[in-house]
Amino acid sequence: MAEKRVALVIGATGIVGGNMIRHLDSREDWQVIGLSRRQPYYESDATFISVDLSDPEECRSKLGELAHITHVFFAGYTDRPTWAEQDAPNLALLANPMDVIEPLSQNLQHVCLLQGTKAYGSQLGPFKSPAKESDPRHMPPNFYFSQQDYLIRASEGKSWSWSCVRPHAVCGYAVGIPMNLVSCIAVYATISKELGLPLRFPGSPITYSALYMATEAGLLSRAMEWAATTPACADQAFNVINGDYVRFENMWPKFAEFFDMETGPLQRIDLPLMMADKAPLWDEIVKKHDLVPNAYEDMAHWPFAQYIFNNEWDMMSDMTKCRTFGFLDFIDTEQMFLDQFAELRANRVIP
Ligand SMILES: NC(=O)c1ccc[n+]([C@@H]2O[C@H](COP(=O)([O-])OP(=O)(O)OC[C@H]3O[C@@H](n4cnc5c(N)ncnc54)[C@H](OP(=O)(O)O)[C@@H]3O)[C@@H](O)[C@H]2O)c1
Known about the structure:
The protein is of the alpha/beta class. It has helices at about 15-25, 55-65, 85-105, 145-155, 180-195, 205-210, 215-230, 250-260, 270-275, 280-290, 295-300, 300-310, 320-325, 335-345, and strands at about 5-10, 30-35, 45-50, 70-75, 110-115, 160-165, 170, 215, 235-240. The longest helix is centred in the N-terminal third of the chain and has 22 residues, at about 85-105. It binds NADP nicotinamide-adenine-dinucleotide phosphate (NAP).
């Protein structure tokens, strides 16, 4: 039997990393090691090392035995108030562990780096659509650029290669990760229903009708494995989205139907402000419907939802490069939302 590949998944408790580890668990040819500070919230065959990756000394002492890594999947992320402030701390999350394991791991073959549509400046305002991997960078700083440039430099003259994958709005199973559009919409709908309100889109009318896209976490995991193990993907970046483009105005009535609610007219509200006092109501809903007791603040991150519902420009990445290189998976985004709401209901997270 061929020797197993050994994956180091950085960001094991994140929405991307957690789903990646569970994907590799389901594959026979991978041994998996996960890194994060917290313990994972899911069952897994992987080995987990709790480490603060922002601390180079801790990386040296806790990762100094990892000489057998063949593939690194980097899905670490640390938030900061401004885009510029995110640069150095996020570069450190990649560089600190890489500086330890790269010289040790003689059989390192590939490092797959998570980026996103923010590589095109989707967070700055309108950007070229559809966005292509060959588009010029926006004005830095951008921690994705710093991380990619680090890998380009570190891999020079070495036998390993790198790739970047660029998803948008990753949607998938995760616990305790409130920056998740599916659970934000589900909690907003549940609370609206409890208050006898229709399901109103709470953001900008322009966003309601703008083009949007998403990436299902399972599809992203398959794309990451593909990019990391397909020789033609070496040293390349790839957009990875479900493959279709949607508008909230078309999906919203279907969401209302799922939650057995009327669709209300739009009403723009300040979500962080208006949802701040709803934790006691959420706790009552949990009790009334005998739900799994998830804390309100673990279910929805309102500034994140506010950001998504008020981006007044099209979000559109081109999937041609991914398809040309051979990754052909696709997912119906509207159905993905409905399936994931149903999964939350089946797991008694929402009524
Ligand atoms: N989620 C999306 O919709 C989306 C969309 C496009 C692109 N992306 C990109 O995908 C990447 C991963 O994002 P994500 O959403 O999966 O992030 P996430 O859910 O916030 O997870 C971040 C991970 O990083 C770990 N981490 C943070 N600081 C750490 C530290 N000091 N030491 C060790 N581990 C640390 C966290 O673990 P602990 O807290 O347990 O330490 C967690 O496992 C990011 O580059 C993000 O920009 C995400």
